[in-house]
Amino acid sequence: MVNSSLKLNKTSFGSAENAGNVITEKEALELLNDWVKNEKLIVHMKQVAHLMKEFAASESLSLEEQHKWYLAGLLHDADWDQWPEQHCKKIILELESRKIDPEIIRAIASHGPRYFGVEPETKMDKMLYAFDELSGLIHAYSLMRPTGYEGMQVKGVKKRLKDKTFAAQVSREDINDAAERANVSIEDLVQFVIIHQKDAKI
Ligand SMILES: [Fe+2]
Questions:
Q1: How far apart are CA 129 and CA 178, in angstroms?
Q2: What is the domain extent for residue 139?
Q3: How many domains does the chain have?
Q4: Which pLDDT tens digit goes with each residue over 147-163?
Q5: What is the dihedral of CA 25, 31, 37, 39, to 10 degrees?
Q6: What is the CATH number of the domain that holds 160?
Q7: What are the residue boundaries of the HD/PDEase domain, all occurrences included (predicted)?
Q8: Per-residue pLDDT reduced to its tens digit, 97-116
Q9: How far is the CA of 155 from the centre of ligand 1 (A)?
Q10: Ligand 1 mean position to 46 CA, how many Å?
Q11: Is residue 147 a part of any domain in this protein?
Q12: Helix axes 39-58 and 63-75, enclosed angle (nearest 10)
């Protein structure tokens, strides 16, 4: 799906003087509407955004911080649909040119260390990486369950994680790596997604 050409070859993103600069949710959604034609990808980004915001809230971070986490989730794959060969590079350049808070850009840049060559460092970086693939797998699981998220259990998700033919494009390796880096158990991560993902505005 992706190759080494996606390597970003840098470790610093944006500018420290832009700390605290954000765009509104409306502006971010406008960017997505401009850039992304694939509805499923938009749903994916909205779900990850919601998980990010909820996680920041669960850590008692301020509303400003929660919005930053939300934006990182909402925009992390914005360039994947139209510019897969420039995935990550394009959205980083866009956010740098809009003088967006470097922490948001960094989280996006490190959401796939194997591909982009940027190590997740902050909690925001690590949680974006951790939620990304797992969110998709649990969404797929909800769609095949007659009751969706209702009654979904951690053990059911773990069974799907073990079954490599289920949502086969979802990298189990990345999920395990991300959970380890974030120092969160797979069980806790899965439970968090089960509880919160159904409330994402999609
Ligand atoms: Fe993603």
A1: 6
A2: 22-199
A3: 1
A4: 999 999 999 999 999 99
A5: -10
A6: 1.10.3210
A7: 37-146
A8: 999 999 999 999 999 999 99
A9: 23
A10: 10
A11: yes
A12: 150
